[in-house]
Amino acid sequence: RYKDNVGAIATKADAILKSPVDRFDMFSPTRLLEAAIKDGDEIMKLEEFADRLLQFKRKKLYIINISQEVEFLESVHENLGIKNDFASIRSEYGVAWVNNHGCYIYDGSKISNLLERGGMRLIDENEWASFASYDPMITYYPRKKQIIVVDNASNAKSIYIYDLVTKSWTRGVYKIG
After folding, report:
1. What is the residue-wise DSSP string for 6-54?
2. Which of 7, 41, 61, 62 could connect to 35 by a Cys-Cys bridge, CB 3.0–4.6 Å?
């Protein structure tokens, strides 16, 4: 959102407004970063890691290279979007996120589905789809280097914990009060 030239609030759900260098909180409609225009989807959250900007929409993920003076769209990933802003986190390992298709991590160069290892699924597709069908939430526990995924942000009944060191999953039911 920004104020237009007559002082009214204008909203661009598909655009990122950039401020000039060293001029924080100064946004202008002339300094827009748009990965996809009028695609029927809105930006849910932005994350950054290793000079990349991850633009999450509900259905897609756009990875934007911000390492140079002019940003450019590096890749587009179907079905890797998120439903809400608490479905992604940043850690020292990269940006992790969850949706009903899987749990993913971007390490600065590639996206990995944490539900797969060596071409084998670690958690059954239907089980995961049922678990993450409503409003999944993700968080990071740095001391143990674990990603915690909650099935429903407003009424948690079940969790999965992914250990980034052992690369293994643990499931818990009714573990969150």
Report:
1. TS-EE--TT-EE-PPTT-TT---TTSEE-SSSS-S--EEEEEEETTEEE
2. 62
| The pLDDT value given to residue 95 | 98
Within 10 angstroms of residue 87's Cβ, the number of other Cβ atoms is: 23
pLDDT at 177 over 60: no
Cβ neighbourhood burial of 156 (10 Å; 0-12, 13-18, 19+): middle
Q: How far is CA 57 from CA 36, 43, 48, 79, 112, in A?
A: 10, 5, 15, 10, 18
User: How does pLDDT run across 8-45, given as a tens digit for each residue?
Assistant: 887 777 777 777 777 777 776 777 677 776 677 888 99
Side-chain-side CA neighbours of 119 within 13 Å: the count stands at 0
Is residue 73 scored above 80 in pLDDT? yes
State pLDDT tens for residues 87-108: 999 999 999 999 999 999 999 9
- For 21, the token pair is 């260098």
Beta bridge partners of 46: 55
Rounded (to 5) percent helix, strand, coil in the chain:
5, 45, 50
Residue 59 has φ and ψ, to the nearest 5°, of -110, -25
